[in-house]
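Re: that chain you flagged

S.,

Sorry for the slow reply, it's been a week of failed gels. I finally had a moment to sit down with the sequence you sent. For the record, here it is as I used it:
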Amino acid sequence: MSILALYNNLNSFLVLGALLFGIGIYGIVTRRTLIGMLIAAELLLVGASINFMAFNRFTAPDPVVGQVFTLFIMAIAAAEAAIGLSIVISVYRHYKSIDAEDTVQLKG
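Prediction finished late last night. Pasting the structure tokens below so you have them in one place:
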């Protein structure tokens, strides 16, 4: 099987997207630090973006729809990273740790 056959196959993109999504879920569940959880959330969004682009390329009659969804996901990922990192910095300044178990004491 050649590389070109894998490139022109919807299933290969869907498997890659599902793999990244699964790794992201696993990372969110198993990571103890907030930065690890943030990276895992980014993997979730990348897996969803790959699936949107794959369906856009192979099944959508209008090629713009999947690209717009992917750009929207990228904008949400950038905002999530900025807000998440600011929260991580604030938690580190207060608790001197980025362990997620320390944030249980937060009230509000």
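What I noticed first: The longest helix spans residues 64-95.

Talk soon,
D.
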